[in-house]
Design brief:
Distance between the termini: 27 Å
Number of helices: 10
Largest sheet: none
Oligomer: single chain
Number of strands: 0
């Protein structure tokens, strides 16, 4: 595949993955990382570039979700507080994850993420008709765990944070918008951590294509969330989380 064709393929792939991610709160890094690795890129080419592109697209998606009233990020609202608590918890967890990612065998990282994501999806579907009480303790714990996932693999943040918020009492539309903002901020920490702790020079060759494809999809995704009802989104998020967990595990053993 020629360089121009490869760039177009990456742009299209990033568009599709970010559309799904900004519509459901998950799927960008979780899907992109293994695909780009299969295409022959190294982890240190893939993960930092994904983090950088999702930093930009995540903040853009959060802005549009706010404008379309999918979520309310005005200062002092529960949505803004939740997003910043999640992002705040990410600082130490992301740095720890980057250090672990540079030393831990990838098999165990993927096994851990696959089991965790699958379990969250299963919990949502089992408790589909239940209403949960909001808890700051749950949100804080969720932020630490999800940021650890993101720093290790470039993925695994959205499925956990979106589904975890729903299980913590946050409405589906709000959870998706909050995930976009907190994930964007978490990716900023991840990019800085890789720049500081990586001994090798990071190659950013694929970053422009990833950023362009991701940004182009954001308006379509925000409008999609606007059109769906919270109850329908909750079911879709549960199924998508379950599938992502199964796919992650399947790639390890098949």
């Amino acid at each position: 595949m020629h360089l121009f064709e490869l760039s177009l393929a990456i742009i299209a792939l990033a568009f599709i993955c970010e559309y799904i991610d900004s519509s459901l709160g998950m799927g960008y890094g979780t899907a992109l990382t293994p695909i780009l690795l299969i295409w022959g890129y190294s982890p240190l080419q893939v993960v930092p570039a994904i983090l950088l592109s999702e930093l930009i697209s995540g903040l853009s998606a959060a802005f549009l979700h706010h404008r379309l009233k999918n979520v309310d990020f005005k200062i002092g609202t529960n949505d803004s507080k939740t997003a910043f608590v999640l992002a705040g918890c990410s600082i130490f967890a992301t740095i720890a994850a980057v250090l672990v990612a540079l030393n831990l065998p990838k098999f165990y990282v993927k096994l851990y993420i696959g089991v965790l994501v699958f379990s969250m999806g299963l919990l949502i579907l089992i408790n589909l008709n239940r209403t949960f009480k909001f808890s700051w303790f749950k949100i804080s714990s969720l932020g630490l765990l999800a940021a650890f996932n993101k720093g290790i693999s470039g993925g695994g943040y959205g499925p956990l944070v979106t589904s975890g918020q729903i299980l913590s009492g946050v409405k589906s539309k709000n959870a998706i918008g909050i995930t976009s903002l907190s994930e964007g901020l978490t990716c900023f920490v991840g990019v800085i951590a890789y720049l500081i702790f990586t001994n090798h020079t990071i190659e950013w060759d694929i970053a422009p294509s990833l950023i362009l494809g991701a940004i182009l999809s954001v308006p379509f995704a925000a409008y999609t969330v606007k059109r769906f009802k919270n109850t329908h989104l909750k079911l879709i998020v549960g199924i998508a989380t379950l599938i992502l967990g199964l796919v992650t595990l399947g790639k390890l053993f098949l």
